[in-house]
Amino acid sequence: MEKSIEIILMAASKQLRSSLSATLMNRFHSHGNEISMAVTSPLFDVLWDEYILWSLFVGVLTFGWLYHHSFAYRSIDGEKPPNVDGIKVGVFPKHNDDLKLEVAWTVLPFLLIIYLTYISWAPLDHVWAAPGSETRGDECLEGESSLNEFDADTGFVYSECFHVIEITGQQWFWSFDCNPDLDDESKRDFNLSSDLCAVSSQMVEGYGMQPVINLKEGETYLLVMESEDVTHAPWFLQLSTKEDVLQGQKTTMWLPMTEVGDSLILCTEYCGDAHSLMAAVVSVHS
User: Fold this and answer.
1) Separation between Cα atoms, residue 203 and residue 24, nearest integer Å
2) DSSP string of 169-202?
3) Residues of the chain under the 50 pLDDT cut
């Protein structure tokens, strides 16, 4: 019975999680054909499910308690309620408390908050891991592959090495560079093959002609970003990740590609009149 309830709750949370992306993607077509949404980030899915389950548990406990007490301790017309507290006119009421209950009501929520904060660090550590770390490795040499390994329990993707690419934000479009000149972020002295990274464009319904960054499944990319004007923020819908792009300052974001598919990229930092049309596509092939 408990297992069945858990399965139902997990299914409900996944349906809720996908509803936002489905709303944004329902007009996302290429040459009249619906583009798949296979690029996902299980890391955030695991965290989402954890939060949903705890929210349901605390909600049922709290509102169940309130619902029970609303009926169990209600007064009845014409019936004199018992004076359980011994209240008398002109006499200060006696102090009636339960120290154990008060301590439990304070400590247990605090411990839950500490736990949720702790598990929430996992995506931050993973998304902002430093180059050269155990999670990401060093920049790939010519002919090397990231050899991504997916940990189903944690949602982490471990990489042997990574490839450096660049994205530039400008009102109101994105531009990609597979072989940027970035001395501080990359020591690469060769160009990535078109199989690893290529830039193209395609017509996207509702957004017009938009740039496409073509990446390879099983590879990890370090995305170095900068803006030429105002602040932007690329949101990779099916990767569940985004990062601010700032003028005069480089920011970075990891893109571990684990599945074949296409995903829309939107700007989530208001940047002017055509902000809602600032889009692009990331296409992952095998």
Assistant:
1) 16
2) EETTEEEEESS---TTT----SPPPTTTEEEEEE
3) 1-3, 5, 8-9, 13-18, 20-25, 27, 29-40
Tell me if residue 154 falls in helix, strand or coil.
coil
Contact 166, 224 (CB under 8 A): yes
Pairing of strands 149-150, 173-177: unpaired
Match 């934000």 to its residue by tokens.
169
Query: Hey, what are 138's tokens?
Result: 């060093």
Q: Tokens 């500490």 sit at which residue?
A: 114
The 3-state DSSP class for residue 144 equals coil
Determine the distance from the C-alpha atom of residue 116 to the mean position of all C-alpha atoms in its chain, rounded to a whole number: 15
Burial (CB count within 10 angstroms: exposed 0-12, middle 13-18, buried 19+), residue 215:
buried
Is pTM beyond 0.90? Reply is no
Q: DSSP string of 24-48?
A: HHTT-EETTEEPP-----HHHHHHH
Angle at 146 between CA 140 and CA 148, to 5 degrees: 160
Strand pairing category for 261-267 and 234-236: antiparallel
- Rg of the chain over all Cα atoms, to the nearest angstrom: 26
pLDDT in tens, 94-145: 777 788 888 998 999 999 999 999 888 877 767 777 787 778 889 999 999 9
Residue 162, φ and ψ in degrees, nearest 5: -145, 165
In 10 A of CB 57, how many CB atoms?
12
Residues 6+ apart with CB under 8 A from 51: 116
